[in-house]
């Protein structure tokens, strides 16, 4: 069967881009460059269409349904015209006695047909308008990101590599669930592993905010992967049966058309019934108005073959009521047989599974007998009612396995089930139970499972005696660590989220965040926020803003360390010494005139020399954090020409600082080695 491919037309895309350029204050740019931007947008229409394929498919289906209805309406109106014309010219006595009655009957049928077609047209048009509105809403974010990237690419080298921040507004520098995710090395590893194996169980491990959820969403958006991808977020309160049902429900919705699952979920009988009754009442009133008007103009003489106007109205009204009852009965019959009839399509299978998950089945049998003579006698009856019991975890797992097998058989597409935020479970032991509970589903043919948990949570679990790391190692075929972003990936991410964001500031944000996606966005947002706070006469240079960002972040860490040390109830000299050292450094940060590196070198920090109490852990890692901050201020406090910022030595220094920043929390010796490499790289700039 030929598959129709829907996509955004270049004209529609160009019109949407032009409206953003002309009306969006953030995207305001030189008008002489609008044509170049629009041409690039047209060239990349295929990429945007791939991102919005589901929304585009809904719009296309609504348009095709409206086109089919137009053809049906044209044929129906043509048939109605011939019917009325025939009744007026050649139908004396058939089926009514007079020609006027026959014309009235034919006109009534035409009116009812018109009302039915109009109601159907209004419903399809409303669906098309809603689908088009959803498409425009979904298009805004990726189109804005593309325009920001194009504006950055059109700037000359002096502007792109200038040491002054020109970005004043950056509403996208937050943790948005954007559809236009950037490609990364980690995603390619994940995608390749899924594509090369018949089935797999994959663990995603990484720090909080490193982008594990983004990788899972990217699997859903990857049309080349050609899989049924269900994304499930772990509940706060874990229940084995409910968790399996949640996965089952999400996977069942994947096989439906976009928006169809929501319509099924929010479908209500009462509003539909009221709408049908209103349409029915309006049709009856309209019909009676027409018949009474004709009756006043031409009074027919009734006989045995003529129903009369009242009789004709009663017949039509009865037919409408009968049709409504039959339609409702057919719906009820379908809902009762949906669970027993073998599905033939993926849609039927998914609808069947949603019915199975949403409703419980009650089976009733009754029998009666009576014997009466002269109004008295005996009667009796019996009734048997059976309600399905609640299924166990093993049965829910078996039902999900059967559904996966059926889905594979009907669609031929592999299934990918992503379970996110396992560390969100309230009890750490429940994370282990959740992984063990899903083991029964692993290694179903052409079924892949991707589970994520943060390394911070695994360390915390291990500290509490919960062997979640061992469970990960034994349950999964591979564990993919979500590493930091590369410098190029950081540049692409910020270019799509902030317009005219200087590449020099990208270097600073990457170095100070360590390539951690969430911290990268926060650092960039802090630069923009601090620029708006500048006084008159202050220029938004990288030396000024980077220094303020570093001091602000360092103060927050020091304040948090002091608060943590308040919980250290050991009361010994060692605890007091730690607190005094941190307080002394906190006071030194108040000197804005002194370079940050000098303050760090002059300060006395607690050593990171082995296991310490949880309250003292921030103090133990404060020294390397402060040293990295001092190195970053030193590197970016010097004004340089664009060529120097693009030099190889500068790139190596930035990457060395990012590696040192991302190593915080590891063994002290590993941190020290990376810090030494960062110092050497900065000395070579």
Brief overview:
The chain is α/β, with parallel strands linked by helices and 685 residues long. Helices cover 63% and strands 8% of the residues.
Portion of residues in beta strands equals 5-15%
Q: How many angstroms does the end-to-end distance come to?
A: 62 Å
How much helix is in the residues? 55-70%
Runs in which pLDDT lies below 50 for 5 or more consecutive residues are 1-5, 259-271, 302-307
Per the principal axes of the C-alpha atoms, what is the gross shape?
Answer: globular
Could you tell me the mean pLDDT? 75
Strands across the major sheet, in which order? 2-5-6-1-7
Structural class: alpha/beta
Largest sheet: 5 strands, parallel
Q: Evaluate the radius of gyration.
A: 35 Å
Q: Would you report the number of β strands?
A: 7
Number of helices: 28
InterPro entries: P-loop_NTPase
Organism: Nonomuraea bangladeshensis
Transmembrane segments: 71-91, 103-123, 275-295, 307-326
Protein name: P-loop NTPase fold protein
Notes on the protein architecture:
This protein has 685 residues and is α/β, with parallel strands linked by helices. The chain has helices spanning 10-23, 34-43, 45-51, 53-90, 99-154, 157-160, 185-196, 212-221, 240-254, 260-265, 269-297, 308-337, 346-358, 393-411, 428-438, 455-463, 468-475, 487-497, 503-513, 517-532, 542-565, 573-588, 596-602, 617-620, 622-636, 642-645, 648-662, 668-683, and strands at residues 200-206, 228-233, 362-373, 376-387, 415-420, 447-454, 478-481. It has a five-stranded parallel beta sheet with strand order 2-5-6-1-7, with helices on both faces. A hairpin with a 2-residue loop joins strand 3 (362-373) and strand 4. Helix 9 (240-254) packs parallel to helix 14 (393-411) and helix 27 runs antiparallel to helix 28. The two termini are 62 Å apart. The chain crosses the membrane at residues 71-91, 103-123, 275-295, 307-326. InterPro entries: P-loop_NTPase.
């Amino acid at each position: 069967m030929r598959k129709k491919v829907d996509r955004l037309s270049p004209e529609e895309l160009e019109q949407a881009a032009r409206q953003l350029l002309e009306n969006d204050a953030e995207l305001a740019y030189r008008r002489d460059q609008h044509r170049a931007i629009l041409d690039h947008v047209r060239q990349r229409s295929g990429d945007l269409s791939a991102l919005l394929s589901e929304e585009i498919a809904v719009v296309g289906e609504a348009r095709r349904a409206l086109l089919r209805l137009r053809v049906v309406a044209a044929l129906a109106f043509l048939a109605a015209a011939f019917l009325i014309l025939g009744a007026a010219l050649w139908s004396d006595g058939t089926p009514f006695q007079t020609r006027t009655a026959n014309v009235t009957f034919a006109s009534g049928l035409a009116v009812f047909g018109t009302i039915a077609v109009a109601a159907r047209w209004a419903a399809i048009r409303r669906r098309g308008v809603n689908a088009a509105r959803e498409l425009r809403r979904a298009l805004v974010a990726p189109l804005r990101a593309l325009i920001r990237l194009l504006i950055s690419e059109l700037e000359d080298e002096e502007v792109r590599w200038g040491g002054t921040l020109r970005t004043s507004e950056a509403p996208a520098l937050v943790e948005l669930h954007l559809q236009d995710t950037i490609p990364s090395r980690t995603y390619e590893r994940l995608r390749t592993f899924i594509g090369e194996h018949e089935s797999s169980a994959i663990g995603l491990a990484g720090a909080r905010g490193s982008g594990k959820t983004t990788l899972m969403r990217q699997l859903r958006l990857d049309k080349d992967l050609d899989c049924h991808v269900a994304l499930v977020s772990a509940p706060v309160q874990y229940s084995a049966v409910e968790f399996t049902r949640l996965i089952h429900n999400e996977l069942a919705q994947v096989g439906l058309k976009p928006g169809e699952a929501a319509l099924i979920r929010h479908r209500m009988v009462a509003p539909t019934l009221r709408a049908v009754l209103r349409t029915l009442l309006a049709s009856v009133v309209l019909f009676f108005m027409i018949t009474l008007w004709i009756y006043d103009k031409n009074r027919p003489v009734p006989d045995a073959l003529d129903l009369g106007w009242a009789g004709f109205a009663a017949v039509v009204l009865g037919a409408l009521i009968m049709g409504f009852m039959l339609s409702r009965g057919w719906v009820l019959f379908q809902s009762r047989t949906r669970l027993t009839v073998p599905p033939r399509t993926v849609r039927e299978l998914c609808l069947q599974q949603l019915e199975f998950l949403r409703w419980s089945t009650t089976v009733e049998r009754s029998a009666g007998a009576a014997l009466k003579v002269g109004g008295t006698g005996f009667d009796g009856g019996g009734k048997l009612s059976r309600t399905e019991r609640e299924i166990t975890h093993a049965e829910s797992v078996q039902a999900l396995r059967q559904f996966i097998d059926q889905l594979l058989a009907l669609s031929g597409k592999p299934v990918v089930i992503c379970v996110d935020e396992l560390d969100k479970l309230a009890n750490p032991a429940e994370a282990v139970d959740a992984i063990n509970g899903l083991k029964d589903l692993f290694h179903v043919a052409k079924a892949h499972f991707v589970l994520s948990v943060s390394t911070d949570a695994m360390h915390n679990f291990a500290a509490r005696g919960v062997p979640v790391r061992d469970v990960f190692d034994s349950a999964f075929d591979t564990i993919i660590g979500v590493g930091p972003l590369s410098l190029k990936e950081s540049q692409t991410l910020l270019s799509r989220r902030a317009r005219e964001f200087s590449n020099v500031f990208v270097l600073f944000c990457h170095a100070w965040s360590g390539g951690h996606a969430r911290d990268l966005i926060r650092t960039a947002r802090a630069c923009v926020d601090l620029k708006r706070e500048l006084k008159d006469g202050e220029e938004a240079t990288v030396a000024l803003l980077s220094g303020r960002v570093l001091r602000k972040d360092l103060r927050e860490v020091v304040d948090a360390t002091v608060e943590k040390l308040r919980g250290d109830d050991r009361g010994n000299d060692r605890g007091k010494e730690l607190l005094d050292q941190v307080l002394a450094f906190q006071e030194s940060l108040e000197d804005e005139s002194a370079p940050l590196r000098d303050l760090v070198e002059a300060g006395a920090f607690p050593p990171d020399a082995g296991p310490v109490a949880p309250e003292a852990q921030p103090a133990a890692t404060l020294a390397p954090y402060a040293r990295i901050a001092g190195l970053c201020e030193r590197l970016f406090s010097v004004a340089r020409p664009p060529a120097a910022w693009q030099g190889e030595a500068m790139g190596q220094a930035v990457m060395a600082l990012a590696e040192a920043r991302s190593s915080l929390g590891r063994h002290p010796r590993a941190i020290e080695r990376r810090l030494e490499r960062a110092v050497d790289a900065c000395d070579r700039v």
